[in-house]
Design goal:
Largest sheet: none
Helix content: 40-55%
CATH topology of the largest domain: Cytochrome Bc1 Complex, Chain D, domain 2
Number of domains: 2
CATH class of the largest domain: Mainly Alpha
CATH superfamily of the largest domain: Cytochrome c-like domain
CATH architecture of the largest domain: Orthogonal Bundle
Bound molecules: heme C
Order of helices and strands: HHHHH
Length: about 120
């Protein structure tokens, strides 16, 4: 019984240390300022950097235009969200993936990406 309790206690302490370590790692690794930034830069989610230069992002591509001055250039927030949701509505030949229509990003995730874009 005593042994079991000790084991449990050790396990809890280990889990706690592991949690702290994971947290420390994420905190040092290019800490994103906001959730939308993480989504935009995540190669498995928005992956926007493959095609767009966005300030703060590494190794951007140039298939699409740089995403800068966003608030000034896209004062209509819904219009900007609509581009991320499905750019083929504006340009049927666009190579930009329709993130909303293809369920790569949820509506909430697109809203966070737009929040982030408005900081660039
Ligand atoms: C496969 C390449 C590709 C990816 C990935 C991509 N885009 Fe695009 N994007 C483009 C291209 C090309 C255009 C130019 C317009 C067009 O094709 O209709 C564009 C246009 C845009 C525009 C309009 C910019 C302007 O100045 O008119 C916005 C905003 C935009 N993309 C946001 C995003 C965001 C946010 C992501 C990530 C969630 C993303 N794009 C991912 C290719 C891409």
């Amino acid at each position: 019984m005593r042994l079991l309790q000790n084991l449990r206690r050790t396990a809890t302490i280990c889990a706690c240390i592991a949690g702290t370590l994971t947290f420390a790692e994420t905190a040092t690794a290019q800490a994103p300022d906001m959730p939308g930034q993480a989504l935009a830069f995540d190669r498995a989610k928005g992956n926007c950097l493959t095609c767009h230069d966005i300030k703060g992002g590494d190794a951007p591509g140039n298939v699409g235009p740089p995403l800068a001055d966003m608030k000034k250039r896209f004062p209509d927030r819904n219009a900007l969200a609509a581009i991320v949701f499905d750019e083929t509505r504006r340009n049927p030949l666009s190579v930009m993936p329709p993130f909303g229509r293809n369920l790569i990003l949820t509506r909430e995730e697109i809203e966070s990406v737009v929040d982030f874009l408005y900081t660039r």
